[in-house]
Structures are given as C-alpha cells and as structure tokens.
Design goal:
about 0% strand; single chain; Serine Threonine Protein Phosphatase 5, Tetratricopeptide repeat; about 475 residues; elongated; mainly alpha
Length: about 475
C-alpha cells in the first residue's frame, strides 16, 4: 500500500507539473510512477507521452502512446489523437491521418480538433478538397469560432484558386482575431481599429504580415492590383520605431512589378539594415537587374544568393540559368536549369522552356524539342508572366523547321498565331515573326502561295520586317506569277 500511495503521488504531481508546463519535472514524475508501479497503467504512458510531445521528443512520445494503446482494456480516442499529433509534427501525414480518423471513430461526441488537425494533415498532402471538408466540420463543431479554422480553410481555397472563398474566410478569421494578421481585402477591420486594439508596435507586424499575404495572393491570382499590399508595407514602416529590413524587402517586391529603380533602392536598403546578409535580398535584386537589362549585375546577385543559402533553392538556379542564356553561355545555363529541375518538388514549365532555348541556340534541336514539349505539357493554363506558353510553340516550331519537319513546324507556328494571350502582343516584330517562319515552312514544303500569303501578312503587321521583305522580293523576282 505504501508503494502504491507513493506512485500515485508521483503520477498526480506529474499532472500538476504538466498543467504548469514544467514538462521536465512532469517527465521525471511520470517515469518515477511507472518505475514504482507493479503494473504500470495506460494513463502513465499516455501522460508521459504528452509531456514528451511538448518537449518535441516525438519518437519517444509515440512509443509511450503505443504502450498506452496496448494497455487499454477499451480503446481511447485521446491515445490515437495525441499519437496522430506526434506523427503530424514528424511530417508523417499518412499515419497521422489514420490516427485522427481512428480518434474520430472512437469519440462518443465529435471533437473539432480531430477534424482540424486531420484537415491540416490533408492540406500538407495537397489534398485540398478533403482538407476543406474537415475544416468545415471543425467550424460546425466549435462552440466558439476559431480564427485558425477559417485561416486554414481559406488557405486551402487559396491553393485551389477559389479566391472569393479564400478572401471570405480570411476576413472571417480577422473578425475573430485582429492579431491573426490574415488577408483583409474587404477591410473587415479598419487600419485604425487594428492599431487601437493591439498597439502601434504590434500593429506594424500585423500590417507587414497582411501585406505578405496579399502579395502572395496576387502572385497566384495574377497581377491585378498591388495597391493594398503596398499600402500595408508602407503602413508598417510608418509605425516602426526604427527601420526594418523586411519591410523594405517586401515593398521592393511590390515595386519590382512596376518601378524597377525603386525596387533596387528598397532591396539595397534592406541589405544595409540587415545584421547578416540575406539571400532573398540578393535574389530579388538580381531579378530586378535582369528585367532592367543589367545581366552582369544580376549574375553577381544570383551567385551571392546561392552562396548565402543554407538550403539550395531552385529559383536561384533558374534565374541564374536565365541570365547565362542572355549572356549566351548556354552550357552553363543548361547546368543551372537542370539543377533547378532537380531541386523542385514539382516540375516547372519555365525550367524546361529556358533549357530548351539553350539547347536550341546550341543547335541541339532534338533536346530542345523535348524540353519545349515538356514545357507545353506542364503549362496547364496561361499566366501573367514575361513569357506565355505561345513561346514554347514558337521555338519548338523553329526547332522542327531546322529539323526539316515542316508539317510540325507549321502546326506550332499556327498555334502561336491563333493565340490571343501573348503578353507583349504590341511588339510587332514578334507577331510578324510567327507569319514569317510559317511562311518559311510553307515555302520549304513547296507551298509557294501559302508562303507568299504569310510573308505579306508579316509585312502588313511590320512593314520593316527585313526577312519577310527579302523573301517576298526574291519570290517576285524569280517567280513572276506570284506578283
């Protein structure tokens, strides 16, 4: 009896320490209780597992939950829920989902957290539809609304590109908790109210993080308006007691899309404010230099970004590969773009397009065709970028032309001509080139009438197109019936 009383004391003391978040003392108490008991109980291991969980020692926590499950006469939902939590933080989402599902099955009364965490595990597996269903269930079950439920459901909608639903959820989250710094496109809380509720110093971080959320939303939806994001970063700067590097960095990202000179200034200012150099500052300034035609400066910044990264980043290699393409260093460009492909979790059409372009310039037309074809397969829908998918067809058409596969070339040039989505359609040279090269393919097939028609169309678009003018003049000189 004496031993039994002592082990119970350690167990209860462990629970007190656990509630006080003194997890080291709790672990010592639960372990002592286990040692003293003739037959340790499931609860001993369950509670020690929870203490190990909060110490982020997930493997030992899992072992204790397994032991608790083995010792139970009747299965307990909490054992499975907490083991699921440990697997979740180990990023073993499949097993976590299984445990959350088991917990849901065992509950006499449904529990919102089971659905919330299972939804989050599905979210990280990119199974957004099921995640949305689970978050919705969690929302229905809560006695008191949680900003987290709405935030994560909004983010799942966001990645499904259901932006209206995402914005609605973000606004709801902000109504519940103004400090949740979520996207607030419809002004659910006025800026002055946020400052009043949480103070100017905390509000600066709110505006900064909300600006980041807005910026990221725009990046997925397409560049429509950056005004809200810009306003948030500027507001954060006004509220700071001293300048903050991240504010300047992210405002620089906004400037990147409409004022490269101001982008340079903000990225450079961010660099000056940092105690330690930051790879993203160099990367984004490198992008700005590239878009402004400063390829040597861009190259230096991308090299610096790569040096600074603790973990290699695909975009650094992608952009440096683009720069090497522009500098006509095609072999090195191919190496960088291949490296970018290796680092990506998901294939990216731009990597293949630019590597295809490098192969094309090296006259390795087979490799170029393969890469342009892969880019076309990966490009699911048009997007607002410097290039659109019509360039894949245009350059693949030229590669087919030089391979003397004129039918395939004609098909690809026709594809570019029929498209209305080219972002820089005002550049007459590009549209005229489509007709010129299709004319060349028709000519090489012996279809002189179609060739002349395309040369004329090219000259109609751009009267100064020298190649089209030359080909037309030669046809008129040597084949009079075409005049």
């Amino acid at each position: 009896m004496k031993t039994n009383s002592i082990d119970c004391c350690y167990f209860m003391q462990g629970q007190v320490h656990y509630e006080e978040r003194d997890y080291d003392s709790a672990l010592a108490d639960f372990t002592k209780a286990i040692e003293l008991r003739e037959k340790p109980s499931a609860d001993d291991y369950y509670w020690r597992g929870r203490a190990y969980y909060y110490k982020e020692n997930y493997d030992i926590a899992i072992n204790d939950y397994v032991k608790a499950i083995e010792l139970r006469e009747k299965p307990s939902a909490d054992d499975y829920y907490w083991r699921g939590q440990a697997y979740y933080y180990k990023k073993n989402y499949d097993i976590a989902i299984n445990d959350y599902t088991k917990a849901i099955e065992l509950r006499e009364k449904p529990n919102a957290d089971d659905y919330y965490w299972r939804g989050t595990a599905y979210y990280y597996k990119e199974n957004y539809d099921i995640a949305i269903n689970d978050y919705t269930k969690a929302i229905e079950l809560r006695e008191k609304p949680s900003a987290y439920d709405y935030h994560w459901r909004g983010t799942a909608y966001y990645y499904k590109k259901n932006y209206d639903a995402a914005i609605e959820d973000y606004n709801k989250a902000l109504e519940i908790d103004p400090s949740s710094v979520l996207l607030d496109t419809k002004k659910a809380k006025e800026d002055t109210e946020i400052v009043k509720l949480i103070g100017s110093v905390a509000a600066a971080d709110v505006f900064f993080k909300r600006g980041v959320a807005r910026f990221d939303m725009i990046a997925y939806k397409g560049i429509v308006s950056l005004d809200d994001s810009f306003a948030d970063f500027t507001k954060a700067m006004e509220l700071r007691e001293k300048p903050n590097a991240d504010d300047y960095h992210w405002r620089g990202r906004v400037y990147y899309y409409f004022n490269l000179n101001l982008a340079f200034a903000d990225f450079t200012k961010a660099m000056e404010l940092r105690e330690k150099p930051n790879a993203d500052d160099y990367h984004w300034r490198g992008q700005a230099y590239y878009e402004n035609g400063g390829r040597d400066s861009a190259l230096a910044d991308f090299i610096k970004a790569i040096e600074l990264r603790e973990k290699q980043d695909a975009d650094d290699y992608y952009w440096r590969g683009k720069v090497y393409c522009g500098l006509e260093n095609y072999d090195t460009a191919i190496n960088d773009l291949t490296k970018a492909m290796e680092l990506r979790e998901k294939s990216n059409d731009d990597d293949y397009f630019y590597r295809g372009l490098a192969y094309y310039e090296l006259k390795n037309y087979d490799a170029a065709i393969d890469d342009f074809t892969k880019a076309i397969e990966l490009e699911k829908e048009p997007k607002v970028t410097i290039r659109s998918y019509e360039y894949d067809y245009y350059y693949r058409g030229k590669a087919y032309y030089y391979k003397e596969n004129y039918d395939a070339a004609i098909n690809d040039f026709t594809k570019t001509i029929e498209s209305k989505k080219r972002p820089y359609k005002s550049y007459m040279q590009e549209e005229a080139d489509d007709y010129y090269w299709r004319g060349q393919a028709y000519y090489s097939k012996g279809n002189k009438n179609a060739a002349l028609e395309d040369y004329n169309k090219a000259l109609e678009i751009d009267p100064n197109h020298e190649n089209a003018k030359k080909e037309k003049e030669e046809m008129e000189l040597f084949v009079p019936k075409f005049t």
